[in-house]
Automatic annotation (TrEMBL):
<feature type="region of interest" description="Disordered">
    <location>
        <begin position="119"/>
        <end position="146"/>
    </location>
</feature>
<keyword id="KW-0808">Transferase</keyword>
<dbReference type="InterPro" id="IPR027417">
    <property type="entry name" value="P-loop_NTPase"/>
</dbReference>
<dbReference type="GO" id="GO:0004020">
    <property type="term" value="F:adenylylsulfate kinase activity"/>
</dbReference>
<feature type="compositionally biased region" description="Polar residues">
    <location>
        <begin position="136"/>
        <end position="146"/>
    </location>
</feature>
<keyword id="KW-0067">ATP-binding</keyword>
<keyword id="KW-0547">Nucleotide-binding</keyword>
<dbReference type="GO" id="GO:0005524">
    <property type="term" value="F:ATP binding"/>
</dbReference>
<dbReference type="Pfam" id="PF01583">
    <property type="entry name" value="APS_kinase"/>
</dbReference>
<dbReference type="InterPro" id="IPR059117">
    <property type="entry name" value="APS_kinase_dom"/>
</dbReference>
<protein>
    <recommendedName>
        <fullName>Adenylyl-sulfate kinase</fullName>
    </recommendedName>
</protein>
<feature type="domain" description="APS kinase">
    <location>
        <begin position="33"/>
        <end position="121"/>
    </location>
</feature>
<comment type="similarity">
    <text>Belongs to the APS kinase family.</text>
</comment>
<dbReference type="GO" id="GO:0000103">
    <property type="term" value="P:sulfate assimilation"/>
</dbReference>
<comment type="pathway">
    <text>Sulfur metabolism; hydrogen sulfide biosynthesis; sulfite from sulfate: step 2/3.</text>
</comment>
Length: 146
């Protein structure tokens, strides 16, 4: 398996697309959103995300859930739990969530985000996770990624 380094390509440009984020949202008849749940292990993030996704799905919404444990089986299977790997894990999930909201989906993210700086990322580089009610170690943030 090839080794990849975490540095940006210096010779790439953003490719303009013919179908816009607004076009995709209109086709799905919904406003794309990223609902990001953070908290301690066992605080109920995944349970809440599953229940919310089920309700949205029943209401006819187009959704997808990105769970921290699940993405570590594929997309982030090469990462451990060092500080650098945890930061990269969150960055990759944020980029994935951004692409999915660009596709018009309502994305639910359930992820341990141990570093305050990562929870406060600006929308230009991924979903912004707003510090909210921290009862039971769970934080819920909502972003439209616009």
């Amino acid at each position: 398996m090839p080794e990849f380094c975490a540095r940006g390509a210096s010779n790439s440009q953003w490719q303009g697309l013919q179908v816009s984020k607004a076009d995709r949202a209109a086709r799905l008849n919904q406003t794309p959103r990223c609902i990001w749940l953070t908290g301690l292990s066992g605080s109920g993030k995944t349970t809440l995300a599953n229940l919310l996704e089920e309700r949205l799905f029943v209401e006819g919404r187009h959704t997808y859930m990105l769970d921290g444990d699940n993405v570590r089986h594929g997309l982030n299977s090469d990462l451990g739990f060092s500080e650098a790997d945890r930061v990269e894990n969150i960055r990759r999930v944020a980029e994935t969530a951004k692409l999915m909201t660009d596709a018009g989906l309502i994305v639910l993210v359930s992820l341990i985000s141990p570093f305050a700086a990562q929870r406060k990322r600006k929308p230009s580089s991924g979903p912004q996770i707003n510090e909210g009610d921290r009862s039971n170690g769970l934080t819920i943030g909502l972003s439209s990624l616009q």
